Amino acid sequence: xxxxxxxxxxxxxxxxxxxxxxxxxxxxxxxxxxxxxxxxxxxxxxxxxxxxxxxxxxxxxxxxxxxxxxxxxxxxxxxxxxxxxxxxxxxxxxxxxxxxxxxxxxxxxxxxxxxxxxxxxxxxxxxxxxxxxxxxxxxxxxxxxxxxxxxxxxxxxxxxxxxxxxxxxxxxxxxxxxxxxxxxxxxxxxxxxxxxxxxxxxxx
Length: 204
What we know:
- The protein is an alpha+beta fold.
- The chain is built from seven helices and five strands, in the order αααααβββαβαβ.
- It has helices at residues 3-16, 43-57, 61-64, 77-82, 93-111, 153-157, 178-184, and strands at 120-126, 129-135, 140-146, 164-169, 191-197.
- The longest helix has 19 residues, at 93-111.
């Protein structure tokens, strides 16, 4: 499982890409509700669907030794009710921060001169770090994904911190340069940040 930080980092990665993102219900605030398969068939068809679902789940190690009732029954009303979104979650701190991240990232996709258009994109890796560069005619945007130790911009792109202006961070921190934050973050904390890069080196 990604965990909170990993989910936010992966979300910012998704929203940074030029393709139109497909968001599932409640994804924008990391809803805790599952989305179970549910149906309302009558008679033998309903019984066959329930039995078939148990057979399908038997292939998953987590359910092999479990009792049959551990597999969510598509015909049970509880499967439908448990899948309904709890809209009040959006007011809870963690969910509210995730929702804010999605809103700000989508706003950047709409208003940023580089991110709002189809642009050239380059991808590079350095150990457990990944960098994505989107380039327009006169400007560039760099997204850094860090799943390892703390890093600096110089380590990733050979540039100084003065050459970039932070736009967004999945960590939710603010008021400091993105790359100062990256350098001070504890190891193994997943972080993605979008930055405006001036004069980044060309090439793949």
